[in-house]
Design brief:
six-stranded mixed sheet; Rossmann fold; about 230 residues; 10 strands; four-stranded antiparallel sheet
Length: about 230
């Protein structure tokens, strides 16, 4: 469903992604882990088109979207929940979700969204900026799902979230995967969250994928060594 082929990206003359290869199947959750500065967020921005790639391909369900701007990638099935959530603080919950519907040409919010996020239904007239961190993260995910994606990208979804809420976010992502059969790619540093949610775990270091495990055969000690400061 989703493929990244030999992707490179650079800031000026400094190459920061060195030939990334990644494939994600229908209904699969893949986690990218690594220390700060290893290229995880750059990869996310390159996949959604916020940062242009230098070479390589990004393919969604057989369609090469590499040359497309971000909004065209969204229209073709790629959704992105950025680091820090970036919801619209002065807009209501309902209005935030409706912005995700624009690319579909519809304004109605599917019942499924509120079934997944009942707290957002309760607070649909509340301003996004008045929600807790966990509620804002749910809103950011709901807004992304409103575009009816095939692939969901999430950059550091546990950042600034209370530990008690992190398990709820993990359960929510599994529910979304099961209900919609989405590909989900999560960029994350919190290993406990990754082990709770991912089917496969890929470790990034210095702009390359240097280690891979399935959840069933995960080597926690090996992954922890890559995450150690």
């Amino acid at each position: 469903m989703f493929e990244v082929r030999n992707l490179t990206a650079a800031y000026g003359q400094s190459e920061v992604l060195h030939g990334i290869d990644l494939s994600v199947g229908d209904g699969e959750i893949v986690a990218l882990v690594g220390r700060n500065g290893m290229g995880k967020s750059t990869l996310m921005k390159s996949m959604i088109g916020v940062m242009p790639s230098r070479s390589g391909q990004i393919v969604i369900d057989g369609l090469d979207v590499t040359a497309m701007p971000s909004h065209k990638r969204v229209a073709n099935g790629l959704a992105y929940v950025p680091q820090g959530r970036q919801i619209f603080g002065t807009m209501t919950v309902k209005e935030n979700i409706e912005t995700g519907r624009v690319v579909t040409g519809r304004s109605d919010i599917p019942n499924e969204i509120y079934d997944l996020f009942p707290v957002l239904k309760d607070f649909e007239r509340r301003r996004g900026g008045n929600l807790s961190g966990g509620q804002q993260q749910q809103l950011a995910i709901a807004r992304a799902l409103a575009s009816e994606p095939k692939v969901l990208l999430l950059d550091e979804p546990t950042e600034g979230i209370q530990p008690s809420v992190i398990k709820d976010i993990a359960r929510l992502l599994r529910d979304i995967r099961d209900i919609r059969n989405l590909c989900i790619v999560v960029c994350e540093q919190l290993l406990s969250f990754v082990l709770d949610v991912a089917d496969r775990i890929l470790v990034m270091e210095n702009g390359r994928i240097v280690h891979a495990d399935t959840r069933q055969n995960v080597n926690e000690a090996a992954i922890s060594r890559f995450l150690a400061v």
